[in-house]
Amino acid sequence: MTDPASLLDDLRARLDRVAAATGTEAAAVLTDPDTMEPYRQDWAQAPNPGRPLAVVRARSTQDVQEVLRWATAHAVPVVPRGAGSGLSGGATAVEGGIVLSTEQMRDLVVDPATRTATVGPGLLNAELKRAVAEHGLWYPPDPSSFEMCSIGGNVATNAGGLCCVKYGVTTDYVLGLTVVLADGTAVRLGGARLKDTAGLSLTKLFVGSEGTLGVVTEIIVRLIPAQPPRSTVVGVFPDVVACSEAVLSVTRRIRPAMLEFMDTASIRAVEADLRMGLDTSAGAMLLAQSDATGPERAAETELMAEAFRANGATEVFATEDPDEGEMFTAARRAAFTSLGKLGTLLLEDVGVPLPALPELVAGIERIAAERDVAIALVAHAGDGNTHPIIVLEDDDPDRAARAQLAFGEVMDLAIGLGGTITGEHGVGRLKAPWLPAQLGDDVMELSRRIKSALDPQGILNPGAVL
Predict the structure, then answer these.
(1) Are 258 and 322 in contact (CB under 8 A)?
(2) Nearest residue to 200 (alpha-carbon basis) of 450, 393, 23
(3) Is there a single domain that holds both residue 188 and residue 165?
(4) Residue 322 maps to a domain
(5) In terms of domains, do 22 and 158 share one?
(6) Where do runs of H (alpha helix) occur along 209-356?
(7) For residue 67, what is the domain's CATH number?
(8) Residues 35 and 55 sit within 8 Å (Cβ to Cβ)
(9) What are the two backbone dihedrals, phi and then psi, of residue 17, each rounded to the nearest 5 degrees?
């Protein structure tokens, strides 16, 4: 067996040659255990992360190519990593492998004429939004973690967000990719074209593949004109079922710009953390927005308010003030971090067809009661994507065991209702055991065949997804 130090010397030499050829600074190869420690896990804190041989901070597509050529030659596993904000354990280090970080690949070119931007995978979602706003343009996908998550990570998981009920998710805005395959081959897919049906839809294949098929090193995204002014409607409900019935009443009639859900546990956690004046006696809260133009905005706002009242809302508040609307949006975005201050979190991301939403939220409450574990619930309710969050406030092993059972039962419930184990966070490592139950044997086998064709040695993110 080749000595690890010799292997790493070879890798450094290869990356030095790339730097000399391109006239750039060489990619950093980190081996100090303390320096590597933050790279071993993403935000999900999946159990039993491996100790990587090294962390490589790539600076270019050529760096990524050289790392993967080296990894293929020596059969070394590679775990691609963006900002580390993932919520399913997709960026969990493998023992003796390489963590390949794209955090320093942050190029950005905005083209207002084609309404596109060419983006490095390390650029943060918020940075892209700010840059294109200077041109009167907008990049809609907006995960709650938009200030800290990277575009590369968003592509890897096909991330969604709060406004996706109307504007769609990451894949709807990806026009082209540069992807480095396991053997180091770099392929360019798609381009700055709004319509393109030439060949197989390979660009879409890599969006949501979680680093298991290739490493994305450049993204061409579609931009749209800046979002119009919004009106906000907030409804307070006695329970989560009434709240979810109100969601159905709204979505039968219109497509809101936002339709977000918080239960009492998440409301109380945010209020205790941020002191925003939220109603902590509420059983649930629904946050809706309209960005329709002209008189349609007032009509949609009134329709949503009336739907809230008709489904038992005890209080309805509407405003055209953007600052007031943003306050409620900020409260919804803060749910994960505020709940995280209460204890260890097990994060779910299950979705169902909209008519099944009331049955899903009622079933989650039942599971929480039966297992005697706290499950807070927030949701991108307008598209049926919910985030049940199991909160462990102590180190009780029995409670932790019950929580793991509840975690699986929530996914089983979603699958049984014709839903999915993930709407936007990805499968990663935490949900991989439940994927066959959703997809079935034939689809799993097809997925493995595609994986084997692109990564025959299985070195790309082993243990994730498949």
Answers:
(1) no
(2) 450
(3) yes
(4) yes
(5) no
(6) 240-251, 264-274, 295-310, 322-333, 335-340
(7) 3.30.43.10
(8) yes
(9) -65, -35
- Contact criterion met (CB below 8 Å) for 325 and 231: yes
0.90 exceeded by the pTM?
A: yes
Concatenated DSSP letters of 15-56: HHHHHHHHTSPPPEEE--HHHHGGGS--TT--SS----SEEE
CA distances from 415 to 378, 419, 425, 466 (A): 19, 5, 16, 18
Is a pLDDT exceeding 90 seen at residue 394? no
Strand-strand pairing, 385-392 and 215-222: unpaired
Q: Specify whether the CB–CB gap between 167 and 223 falls below 8 A.
A: no
> Is pLDDT at 393 greater than 90 in this prediction?
no
Q: Is position 462 within any domain?
A: no
Paired residues of 138 in beta bridges: 224
pLDDT tens digits, residue range 405-423?
Answer: 999 999 999 999 999 999 9
Query: In which element (H, E) is residue 105 found?
Result: none
Joined tokens for residue 20: 């000399």
Would you mind telling me the total number of residues written for the chain in this entry? 466
- Rounded Cα gap, residues 386 and 422, in angstroms: 9
* Residue in this structure with the two tokens 């406004």, named with its chain if needed: 163
Domain range holding 139? 108-225
Residues 290 and 141 both lie in one domain:
no
Whether residue 133 sits in one domain with residue 82: no
Q: Where does the pLDDT of residue 395 fall: very low under 50, low under 70, confident under 90, or very high at 90 and above?
A: confident
- Report d(CA 167, CA 228) in Å as an integer: 13
**405 shares a domain with 263:** yes
Is 116 in the same domain as 65? no
CA pair distance 336, 5, nearest whole angstrom? 41
Q: Is residue 276 part of a domain?
A: yes
198 contacts: CB under 8 Å, gap ≥ 6: none
The partner residues of 55 in beta bridges, in order of sequence, read 30, 99
Please compute Rg for the chain using Cα positions: 23
Q: Amino acid identity, residue 36?
A: M
* pLDDT at position 256: 98
Distance set, CA 258 to CA 141, 289, 301, 313, 316 (Å): 12, 5, 12, 18, 16
Cα four-point dihedral sign 429, 430, 433, 438: negative
Helix%, strand%, coil% for the chain, nearest 5: 40, 20, 40
Q: Which residue has the tokens 């990570």?
A: 153
Going by C-alpha positions, the residue among 241, 239, 233, 288 that lies closest to residue 264 is: 239
Q: Which of 43, 69, 101 is the last residue of a domain?
A: 101
Q: Say if residue 82 is in the same domain as residue 135.
A: no
d(CA 402, CA 7): 44
Does 299 lie in the same domain as 179? Answer: no
| Number of domains composing the chain | 3
The CATH number given to whatever domain includes residue 207 is 3.30.465.10
